[in-house]
Amino acid sequence: xxxxPIPAHLLPDTATVHEGRLAIGGVDVVELAxxxxxxxxxxxxxxxxxxxxxxxxxxxxxxxxxxxxxxxQGMAKxxxxxxxxxxxxxxxxxxxxxxxxxxxxxLVMHGNNKSVPELEMAISAGVGRIVLDSFDEIRRIEDLVxxxxxxxxxxxxxxxxxxxxxxxxxxxxxxxxxxxxxxSSGDAGAAIGxxxxxxxxxxVGIHAHIGSQVFVAxxxxxxxxxxxxxxxxxxxxxxxxGGGLGVAYVVGESAPTITEWASSVTAACREHGIEARxxxxxxxxxxxxxxxxxxxxxxxxxxxxxxxxVAVDGGMSDNPRPVLYGSGYEAFLPRAVGSDRTKPVxxxxxxxxxxxxxxxxxxxxxxxxxxxxLCTPVTGAYGHSMGSNYNMVLRPPVVFVCDGEARLVIRxxxxxxLTNRDVVAD
Length: 426
Ligand code: LLP
Prior knowledge:
Bound molecules: ligand LLP
Largest sheet: 9 strands, parallel
Shape: globular
Low-confidence stretches: none
Number of domains: 2
CATH topology of the largest domain: TIM Barrel
CATH architecture of the largest domain: Alpha-Beta Barrel
Mean pLDDT: 96
Oligomer: single chain
Radius of gyration: 23 Å
Distance between the termini: 57 Å
CATH class of the largest domain: Alpha Beta
Number of helices: 12
Strand content: 15-25%
């Protein structure tokens, strides 16, 4: 815990302070809250573009943005404009990327249980790659191609059996996983063999994603070492090392840059004699620290000798990560960015759940009052995208700020949105 001000490295790239107040992209964020209401997601467009450019400089034409981290048509378009491909993992994500105008051949279709309609949609659209995740999926593609669809390019998702040293729910590369074909079971070899022989698909390479919020470069090296023999044996031209690079969320944390991640991956590939095209699928490391969430403080409750609860106008519906993974965040007042944060509080939301916590052990300025705009930084990944409208709380809008201008990329949900899927009997 800290008593100091919010550190600059947790704020978006263009964050500046004028007379104590936070501006992002040249726009005062307290004024944004007044204009668009709260809760509000504010993304620094330049920060997003900087990370995309860094990734392209580091990995070349092999960067595939993992849209699950944050997706809207505006974000899909931005990533594509910056030269990224897009990872879509459901028919819904595929739909949004296509609606944004991203060419289908820039899309990589993921999913451990792709349905026949999803596969049909992806293949008919002409996606660049389908990442095979099960023997059932191989059969489904064979049936679709037999029925007249064009054979797609595929990667086989191999589960390399390495521990990514992250939260149990964010591990994907250990043997006991629903994702991909395991090496130890022999499934990986069998799937690569089957895909290679099948006239219904064009096998171009293999894929592995070991987990998310990963800080240990060694985990990637181990995965690459486990995959190298398959690339060599089957003379495959492409290796996707997935995503997963961790980011710093709280004071005291630091994370490797995308450039550092790419150089350790490239070095590991070299060490294992891999000459294939290397691709990567960053999600969090592109978008997480690009955004902040703004809330309004609604109630402050002091319980003597226990704690102070500060309740804001959002909660687990705009950021379920603290509830799901026990994730930590910082909080501060954008009207007083340089203020010491000396008051320990628990920041909670407005949902009917005791577990509806945004920051379990927060430090905020002692003069925080009802009506203040409170900001949580590093909320650009897996917040809006995993949000819900639990308790019929309206999902917040998203604005992109750049060069002194704000543009709305997702509007606030309305009460009409809450009823327009209901089918009401006469
Ligand atoms: N590629 C694949 C196949 C993935 O499954 C994922 C994330 C990524 C790439 C991107 O990983 P990233 O670079 O964003 O770590 N909801 C969790 C994270 C789940 C990640 C799921 N897959 C969270 O909030 O931490």
